[in-house]
Write a structure and sequence with these properties.
The structure is a homotetramer.
Chain A (H helix, E strand, L loop, with lengths): L8 H17 L8 E5 L6 E5 L12 E5 L16 H10 L5 E5 L5 H4 L21 E2 L13 H11 L4 E4 L3 E6 L2 H24 L8 H12 L2 H18 L5
Parallel strand pairs in A: 5-6
Antiparallel strand pairs in A: 1-2, 1-4, 2-3, 4-7, 6-7
Helix pairs in contact in A: 1-5, 1-7, 2-4, 5-7
């Protein structure tokens, strides 16, 4: 059994690699997008792949990066430009240990229409705080978050929530652990798909109440038993699809 | 040829395992959700996997459980919390031998909009009695059905029907056999997808009449010839996708 | 190179088998549905599989059947109940050599809403004669076409067209050859998907004119070069997905 | 690392083969459609496969063709009829080295409804010049572009843009390199899917401004780092799905 929050660098690096493969295999990430984990041996750095598609990442591709976005690992491998997002969010949210940045197609319509994403299913319960849309891009950066100033602005915009969208681009997610951030990314996508269809069917959508959402988060989504089952499932699927993992 | 209703524990356990793999392979179940079968050697117990994704289940993971939800098998393997649903439905419906609980995305919009699922295709004929939506969750349980009292409420809500939805969560299905419950789960999903598109196209949807539905159930869906063909097909596909089954 | 219209029983049987595998592999057929080919050595019989999913069919499963639906092959293998459709259409349309009956989900909404399928793409050009919806089911047959009387009614309803829908059930297609009937089934599905989305986007849909459609049929769809390319492509994909074919 | 613009015929031929396989593997091309690359050793000819599905193309299938559409390679292999499109566009656009012609389903609704494709995501930024719809087909050609006159008309219609649609048929795309044309084809499809859903959700869609689009093209889409990541990703996926490539 993989521990949810690893105690060693080695286990943290393995979790980032597995999360990347899983998110590629489940169709949540394509060539672009990335995940990171806080270094369990030093809370002021984090692990993230070099600039590479999540589908291809191995443990040898993982870099150690600090909260200013500096690459600590002695290497000439190139980091992602948007490592800034991960640095800024892990710095601003010490209670969180994992960050996701990606562009699942199902969520982007909600970022360009003013229609908010709502918690409509028990696996979307973690969205109950609301999902605001960031639209304050630094001019000249091509809608990529790549400067320290914009990283801090992103962190302020997310506030104490778990998820926000970036207009015409994608989303950022924070969670306590890698399995929880992977579950959040997959179920954000699924909740958006279901909400879209529900809004096509009828105008009165019944969402989870705040009380229901908090309970569902605790018992049905991020509870130890369901989260272990999900994590094991996604690994099993990734191993069948990607024989080099087995 | 697999018998539709097995005569031995061993064959029943194999059917639960196959149904789990099939439903994972056909995209009806993901990490969550489960099926069960009444014990053919003791109608007061049933077989269901330990807490594990349907994708990964083997015959060694199947537990025997009684109608109060107690695990009979001597083991320290953990059962699903929602085994309560299966216990309550198999107790309330002695003519049925198999139960499905899951969360196919295509059906959930119908659970939160007040728009009813209707039998619009011959393979959706088993829905002719109506598909009510349960929305009387026990407070504090996170929308999971995990107490005996709520299990009984669920059984009363289903009544003499085959399918009901759980608001913002998923559905329960009962059937006479494992192949019939698997067919019901797959075609509930397909009927919902088709109905959704039909409702987008036009306001006047022609459904099956009750007479048509009853005949289609008997001849086109749960008849021996079509059901054998479906079951063989789903097994053949699962075996190709999951080489350990072959 | 497979010939489009085979000259021998052996080649005809192989084409039915390949078409069945292709249509399963392309997601047009699931457990149900079937194709047939006129016997090139006797125009009064045709070849079709025994009652089996198209995904699993081998050359050993193919039966010879006459235009009344009688099984000519000496065997105790069971035929499809709906072989009646194939017998009736091949009898009524001597210029056609192949029949498809199936239930692709994308077309069924058009069968229950009164919204007609229209030729909106060059690969949907063969639909220019219109796609009527049959809704005159024999009572008591469960919406299956299984009597000689209803087979004849089906043939009259199709008339001189290539495709019609069966309300809440599926469609029948006729064509000059197995590759052409496979192309028709796949592109009927694709044209329906595209038309559905177009109707969601706007109310004024520009269809192919009759003149455009006739030219596109001849040059872009059923011309020797494109049809050979399609047929080779579908076989190559089926062989990769189904190693027993290779 | 594959170079973006190859320097030799051999490398150019390999890129056309890889692009064809990638586009088949990503579901952008099926049996029909094709890509081409300008000959790096002679700007007045280009490389393109013989008439074959992109899924099956090997380096042995690539022909050299001149800007009038004449096959230069000594061979009896048959070229695509629509090589005319590639010849006309490469002749008219000397700054471009790669052409895509195909029929991704998600774009066709925009070609028959008068609803324009808009740049709604950062990976759709290359669409900022507008995506006009060609509807001036030569009578009698079945909506295929197969005469020199119509090729020139197509080139004039595209003008200085990167993409246009062909009504009821598909699209043409030009780009500086094969990786860029592949990215354009994949993200045109994804942008269309997202725009479609956004238009279903709300009437006020926020698009990229021209300034945002130009910056995003340069930094997020066709920049060396992201484009290398995409190209490597698509190749890795194609190699896993098509073992003969590895």
């Amino acid at each position: 059994m993989e521990k949810f929050v690893p105690e060693t660098k080695k286990d943290a690096i393995r979790q980032v690699m597995l999360a990347s493969r899983i998110l590629a295999n489940e169709g949540v990430l394509d060539a672009l997008g990335h995940v990171s984990i806080r270094n369990p041996e030093n809370p002021d750095t984090f692990f993230q792949s070099r600039s590479l598609s999540p589908y291809e990442i191995t443990e040898q591709d993982i870099l150690e990066i600090d909260m200013e976005g500096n690459v600590i690992t002695k290497t000439d491998m190139k980091p992602y430009g948007e490592r800034i997002i991960h640095a800024a969010l892990l710095k601003a949210r010490p209670e969180m240990n994992a960050v996701f940045h990606g562009h699942p197609a199902a969520i982007i319509p909600f970022s360009i229409t003013g229609v908010p994403i709502l918690p409509v299913t028990h696996v979307g319960s973690f969205l109950y705080q609301g999902v605001p849309v960031y639209d304050d891009y630094e001019p000249g950066c091509g809608m990529l978050i790549s400067t320290k100033v914009e990283g801090e602005r992103i962190a302020r915009h997310l506030g104490n929530r778990r998820v926000h969208l970036l207009r015409g681009h994608g989303c950022n997610i924070v969670a306590e652990s890698i399995p929880a951030v992977v579950a959040s990314a997959i179920y954000l996508r699924d909740n958006a798909t279901i909400q879209f269809q529900a809004m096509m069917l009828g105008k009165d959508i019944k969402c989870l109440s705040e009380e229901e959402a908090k309970q569902a988060m605790e018992k049905a989504l991020f509870g130890e038993l369901p989260l272990m089952r999900m994590w094991g499932y996604w690994i099993a699927r990734a191993k069948r699809a990607m024989p080099d993992l087995a």
